[in-house]
Amino acid sequence: MTFKRIFPPNIFIWAIFMLAIFICSLVANTAKAEQSYADWVKYLKIEAERRNIKQSVIDDAFAHINLTSPNEKIVRSDQHQPELMQTFFSYYDKRVTDEFISEGKQHYAKYKGFLEELEKKYNVPGVYIIALWGMETRYGKIKGRHNILNATATLSYTRRKNFFTLQFFTALQIMEQYNRPAEQMTGSWASAMGHMQFIPTTLHDYGVDGDNDGKIDIWSNEYDAFASAAYYLYKRGWQADRLWGREVIVPKKFNYSLANIKKKHSLKYWRKKKVRRLDGRKLPTKPNLDAALVIPAGANGPKFLVYDNFYRFLNWNYSTHNALTVGLLGNAIAGRKVLQSNYDVGHNALKREYVVNTQIYLNQLGYKAGKADGKFGSKSRKALKRYQKAHKLPIDGYLDINIYKRLKQDADKKARAS
């Protein structure tokens, strides 16, 4: 079967289109202090007309947009602060269940022939396409009901103006090129659409007509959605006949500061550090792949060496928890064991107040964790690692209830002494 790319973007025209949006967004950003939402919507309409979008498309799109004030539901979703910080296991346990794996296997069996054709063309094993589908929309059950035009109009005014302005005008282009009415341009509040939750620019650049019916429909046509997902991963650099990663074991007195998703080393390097396969055998030497060590649940949890294909999952969604879960779910759909061992670590998410207090305690103890905002990012993790190093603990930067209690005790002790 031949898969068709419909409306392939002319690179030169597309570059001019994106540059024009960037320039217009800079102008719009400068004027934002004086500009109301209603005026911003008027600007979007004038700009759409200037770009020679068909008037019928413009009229249809703006009939589905809030004209006087941003959409409140979308603003609330955007500003929502989660009450819990997900740990790896709190994230993983909700998604990789026996029932979910079984459903994934059923879908893989149903589409196996087509997925094998995709793998021949794009190198990506079908089990990971099904895993991504499951992770994104629970195998097509939850695709979002927000109107994308309304969502991108609101978000281009309230935050990330350049990004969502580009999404808005690209959505208009998709309506025009795909002959898709505005009422069918649906997705998440953040403008992710269809079975695989593509944003408009991703659909524009990577959309594929999987069943050769002359159109691309990632909302109701699984073949188009799967082909588009495979093409995306292929173009982002998926390597044929390569693992995304493997679970490994490390020696007792291991230097956990070597775990860094941004620093890859050769397998020869990891062999020298006594990192081994789960059965105790040495790591392979051929092919001599580069790999990073990831420890998503700290020193007492699972450890993974991840290869280049893992980073393609990160291209899709830049979340280590998500990327590992996609890989493990795909492995399970293929019939392999998911996690090889049982780990004595906490599986519950942490309350946001614990995260905020941890940042406060680290700051009080002189470790400069930054703003106590409940977002345990790289600055907070580096601060925690400095604390762990000073107290001769495993330097894994992992926040759990045990390290929280220890920090609280040390901060209280310092406060009493001062």
Give a brief rundown of this model.
It contains 17 helices and nine strands.
Strand order of the largest sheet: 5-7-8-4-6
From the 3D coordinates, which CATH architecture of the domain at 11-81 and 144-235 would you assign?
Answer: Orthogonal Bundle
Largest sheet: 5 strands, antiparallel
Q: What is the rounded distance between the termini?
A: 75 Å
Secondary structure category: alpha+beta
Multimeric status of the protein: single chain
* SSE string: HHHHEHHHEHHEHHEEHEEEHHEHHH
CATH class of the domain at 11-81 and 144-235: Mainly Alpha
Record field, number of beta strands: 9
Radius of gyration: 24 Å
Gross morphology is globular
Strand content: 5-15%
> Which bin fits the share of residues in helices?
40-55%
Poorly predicted regions? none
- What fold name stands as the CATH topology of the domain at 11-81 and 144-235? Helicase, Ruva Protein, domain 3
Please describe what this structure looks like.
- By secondary structure, this protein is of the alpha+beta class.
- Among the domains are: 11-81 and 144-235, Bacterial muramidase (Helicase, Ruva Protein, domain 3), CATH 1.10.8.350; 350-417, Muramoyl-pentapeptide Carboxypeptidase, domain 1.
- It is built from 17 helices and 9 strands.
- The chain has a 5-stranded antiparallel sheet with strand order 5-7-8-4-6.
- It starts with 10 loop residues before the first helix and ends with a helix.
- 39% of the residues are buried.
